[in-house]
Specification:
Largest sheet: 29 strands, mixed
Helix content: under 10%
CATH architecture of the largest domain: Beta Barrel
Shape: globular
CATH class of the largest domain: Mainly Beta
Number of helices: 4
CATH topology of the largest domain: Maltoporin, Chain A
CATH superfamily of the largest domain: TonB-dependent receptor, beta-barrel domain
Number of domains: 2
Number of strands: 46
Length: 836
């Protein structure tokens, strides 16, 4: 491995300059024991990061830097961060022992660790510190993610940031699913286990190039110290909804257990989630019908009420074995299982077709759905550290993911016709769909510091995914009274090979630059057959380059400026490629498109920050081959939704953020502001969208804005009260105009037992305003299509508790696991109530 590192470095002109070595030891104040894996950061007086490392098993650290004045910062989760002012001169500086105390202790000395703000803008990301919010306990990961600035989650679970699709990661690893499956995973994540949410709009070339709008990384809390420690969370919430006369509820139980010795670290986690929800669906469409010399409007309308039951279970175990001071071997095993069902009865599932004022068809439908999705993922990882002080290390990851899904949809129609001759429609329809996906991935990453303040990262990756889809459709026809069975299959295989290099460098005290280049070679093949008809779709291998660039400038201690550029790709999800027919109701269905091409997005960001409170950003992005679900109204009035490459979308706009602005400030003994009794957080976005269809002259220009605000009171005796609200105006995406949305929430948090026990009370969606609407644009004259969904069960009162035992100390971060293709799994993105 050392030889491999030398080969990699031989391509880089590294010139070694005279440096000062800074050494020292970190100990635990109470016991005097050494603290391994503490984070050591060397900062300039203006807080600019120069370099960093971690302590070894004996609590010792070594840093090399040029002569000058610095701040040495030592942090360890569960302990108070310590800062030391040092001056580097000569060949070596020996720092006196640094003693860390638990965060819960009351110290006579000044506390140098400030409370993290709810929202903070860092150089390359926006961070939502969930653990600082009263809304964390008693809410799901999806509830928490909805509160992140600029984030929108549609009815199918698809996540966007400022109108752009993103990849969702958990602890730096892909979430293994998209659409309905991603929605289920987020609903199955206990908000109390989330530490922070990172929104990375311009990821470096180290990350896979997938995702228009970048990456959302959900970082979970970790309780890691020598010995046995862990965390227990439980919450229950519900509310009676008078209009459907139903009580909807949700409960979370999660348990995390960790054990660490000097040679090994083992973590085990169990999660259980149960929820009831409701969806009230309205579909309306209209089209002109020529009858002789007259043109009559044919109007279709469907109303339905779906009760949805959701259960989620997950077991996760991981282990790191510290072979010696430079080699670590580990594994991760994750086994989630999701079950979901929905039902609508004929009295609440009704559709009509009218010709003028005359009713020509009336259908009452009993619709049921059952879904079972077991999954297991495995990761083996190895890290070799060549030089700790230079952050020189090599990491290897091998991943495997097996995903299964079985969905059974049943539909029984009670049909009343007023036509001569009468139409023949299915009286009963049963659809059994099975999907199996196997993912294999191998990745190698290398990094090293150079020229004192530089960092080089490079690596390679290969991934292969195979998916097999089988559908059996049974139909019982009304008049012919015969049973027909149809078998449909779709197999799809894809391989992606990638290489990247990224170089970052700090120039002086004001400038920093990061440049990167990633190349990805893709090959895909799909085979679709229905009964005896077989069709193969094979894409020629295509190679794409994805450059990234970042330049930062800090003229003073309070001001920070940066500009960045990135190019990214969004490959179609497996389900959008699948040509299976998925029914929403008797007259609405959707199909995939095996010929769908990937999207490409180019984006430029300019950010300006002042102090810790104010930041302003400007953005320009251009998307090519944007795919979109397009509506086709057939001659018989049926609504067919098919995925197509719409065209291009150009956006430009910006955002402004006020982060924890003290309305009623707290002041320390010196009279300086040190936190707040009452703080305001605001994040506002405004963008202009230009959508251009490639096959028609359709052009749509629209303006979109979103606003998020949070007012938080920090009261004595560890009490915290918050109100937060968000609003999004209507957005045009392709041929769809998505309606506006808003929500208001209340949260209360009280901590006991030296902050180890937390009680939380939340009232979510106070105004019962969480709904979704979509109108189709670009239709011929006389055509109209509209959909509206009221999501019930999101308005609820929740009570939760969280108890932490152990020291909650930091465990060395390891870059392990990377099955990026798995974010494209998932079931149907149905527009009806058939999903979860």
């Amino acid at each position: 491995m050392k030889r491999l590192a030398l080969i990699i470095l031989s391509f880089l002109p590294v010139y070694l300059l005279a440096q000062t070595t800074i050494t020292g030891t970190v100990k635990e104040q109470r016991s005097g024991e050494f603290v391994p894996f503490a984070t050591i950061s060397l900062l300039r007086p203006d807080s600019t990061l120069i370099t960093g490392t971690i302590t070894d098993d004996n609590g010792t650290y070594n840093l090399s830097t040029a002569a000058g004045k610095y701040i040495l910062q030592v942090s360890y989760v569960g302990c108070r961060t310590q800062n030391r002012a040092i001056e580097a001169s000569g060949k070596q500086v020996l720092v006196p022992d640094i003693l860390l105390s638990e965060e819960t202790e009351t110290l006579n000395e000044i506390n140098v660790q400030a409370k993290r703000p709810l929202i903070e803008r860092q150089v390359d990301k926006l961070v939502l510190n969930v653990s600082e919010s009263p809304f964390a306990i008693g809410n799901s990961g999806q509830d928490i993610l909805r509160k992140a600035p600029g984030v929108k989650i549609d009815k199918d679970g698809n996540v966007t940031v400022n109108g752009k699709s993103v990849e969702v990661y958990v602890d730096g690893r892909p979430s293994y699913m998209s659409g309905e499956q991603l929605k289920g995973m987020l609903q199955g994540t206990d908000g109390a286990t989330i530490d922070k949410i990172e929104i990375i709009t311009n990821p470096s070339s180290k990350y896979d190039a997938a995702g228009q709008g970048g990456i959302i990384n959900i970082k979970l809390k970790k309780n890691k110290s020598q010995g046995l420690n862990g965390m227990l969370n439980a919450s229950y919430g519900g509310m009676y909804h008078p209009k459907p006369k139903r009580y909807y509820q949700m409960d979370f139980v999660s348990f995390n257990l960790n054990y660490r010795s000097k040679k090994t670290y083992t973590a085990f986690a169990l999660t259980q989630v149960y929820s009831d929800q409701g969806q009230r669906l309205l579909l309306q469409s209209e089209m002109p019908i020529v009858a002789g010399v007259d043109t009559i409007a044919q109007h279709s309308e469907s109303k339905s009420m779906h009760d949805i039951n959701f259960q989620y279970y997950n077991a996760r175990i991981s282990n790191d074995w510290y072979i010696d001071s430079v080699n670590t071997l580990g594994f991760i095993l994750n086994v989630p299982v999701m079950l979901a069902s929905s039902k609508s009865i004929p009295a609440e599932n009704h559709s009509q077709i009218l010709l003028g004022v005359d009713t020509i068809q009336d259908i009452a439908t009993l619709q049921t759905m059952k879904m079972l999705s077991p999954q297991h993922t495995a990761n083996i990882n190895f890290t070799h550290t060549f030089n700790d002080s230079l952050s020189r290390e090599l990491t290897v990851n091998v991943d495997y993911n097996r995903y299964n899904n079985r969905t059974q949809n049943n539909q029984e129609n009670s049909i009343h016709l007023n036509l001569i001759p009468a139409m023949i429609l299915p009286d009963k329809l049963a659809i059994d769909t099975r999907q199996q996906v196997d993912l294999y991935s191998a990745k190698i990453d290398f990094q090293t510091a150079f020229w004192k303040t530089g960092l080089i990262e490079c690596g390679a990756k290969w991934a292969m995914s195979n998916t097999a889809n089988k559908m059996t459709t049974d139909s019982l026809l009304t008049e012919a009274r015969y049973q027909s069975t149809t078998h449909t299959n779709f197999d799809y295989s894809e391989q992606v090979a990638a290489m990247y290099i990224s170089v970052a460098k700090q120039f002086g005290t004001h400038w920093n630059v990061k440049l990167g280049l990633r190349g990805e070679l893709t090959y895909a093949k799909g085979t679709f057959w229905k009964e005896d008809a077989k069709q193969s779709v094979e894409q020629k291998p295509y190679f794409n380059l994805f450059p990234t660039a970042f330049i930062g400038y800090n003229p003073t201690e309070k001001w920070a400026l940066s500009v960045s550029y990135t190019r990214r790709i969004k490959r179609p999800s497996y389900w959008t490629l699948n040509p299976f027919v998925t029914y929403v109701d008797a007259h609405s269905y959707q199909v995939g498109n095996p010929d769908l091409k990937p999207e490409f997005n180019n984006q430029v960001d300019l950010n300006i920050g002042w102090s810790q409170y104010v930041s302003v950003g400007f953005n320009f992005a251009h998307t090519q081959q944007m795919f979109h679900q397009q509506l086709e109204v057939l001659d018989n009035g049926d609504r067919k939704m098919v995925w197509r490459n719409f065209g291009t979308c150009t956006t430009h706009g910006g955002n402004i953020a006020l982060t924890e602005l003290p309305l009623v400030p707290k002041r320390n003994a010196e009279g300086k502001i040190d936190g707040a009794w009452l703080a305001l957080t605001v994040n506002a976005n405004a963008y202009h969208f230009i959508n251009r269809a490639s096959e028609t002259n359709y052009v749509n220009r629209s303006f979109w804005t979103s606003v998020y605000g949070c007012l938080t009171a920090y009261l004595p005796k560890d009490i915290q009260i918050s109100f937060d609200a968000n609003y999004e105006m209507p957005m045009v995406n392709g041929y769809s105009k998505i309606g506006d949305g808003y929500a208001l929430n209340f949260g209360f948090k009280k901590q006991f037992l030296e902050k180890r026990l937390t009680l939380s009370v939340n009232l979510s969606d106070i105004l019962a305003s969480m709904n979704y609407s979509e109108e189709t644009l670009g239709l011929p004259k006389g055509y109209y299509n509209y959909m509206e969904i009221d999501m019930l069960g999101l308005q609820r009162i929740s009570i939760g508790i969280s108890y932490i035992f152990g020291q909650q100390q930091f465990h060395k971060f390891r870059k392990v696991g990377d099955v990026d293709e798995a974010s494209r799994l998932g079931g149907s993105t149905s527009k009806g109530g058939g999903g979860i």
